[in-house]
Design goal:
Layout lengths: L1 E6 L2 E4 L4 E9 L4 E9 L6 E7 L4 E3 L7 E6 L4 E6 L8 E9 L4 E3 L3 E6 L1
Parallel strand pairs: 2-11
Antiparallel strand pairs: 1-3, 3-8, 4-5, 4-9, 5-6, 7-8, 9-10, 9-11
């Protein structure tokens, strides 16, 4: 079992920045990739960014150049630095961890609201 707790959401104006954090606990040694997904009202959950156990990042095209994912293995945390935020980035952001046993774990989500 992997437990994920997000923090750092909030409300900003367009062009602003936010930094999301995700703290992982439990069977963290089994995690092969960890990252962020988001779900806007009336839309399906979509990938934002992930980072592998070797540190290789992967971004959705819509956030490339604006968002940066990073991880601190010593603290079992992953971060999402979001710059140049736009109203279309408004969503609930979820931390996700995939394990070597093909399990997927989710955090409770954190709201990000960007006003124009």
């Amino acid at each position: 079992q992997v437990y994920l707790v997000e923090s750092g959401g909030g409300s900003v104006q367009a062009g602003g920045s936010l930094r999301l954090s995700c703290a992982a606990s439990g069977s963290i040694g089994s995690i092969v990739a960890i990252g962020w997904y988001r779900q806007a009202p009336g839309k399906q959950r979509e990938l934002v960014a992930t980072i592998s156990s070797t540190g290789t990042p992967n971004y959705a095209d819509s956030v490339k150049g604006r968002f940066t994912i990073s991880r601190n293995n010593a603290r079992n945390m992953v971060f999402l630095q979001m710059n140049s935020l736009q109203p279309e980035d408004t969503a609930v952001y979820y931390c996700n961890a995939g394990t070597a046993y093909r399990q997927n774990f989710w955090g409770q989500g954190t709201q990000v609201t960007v006003s124009s």
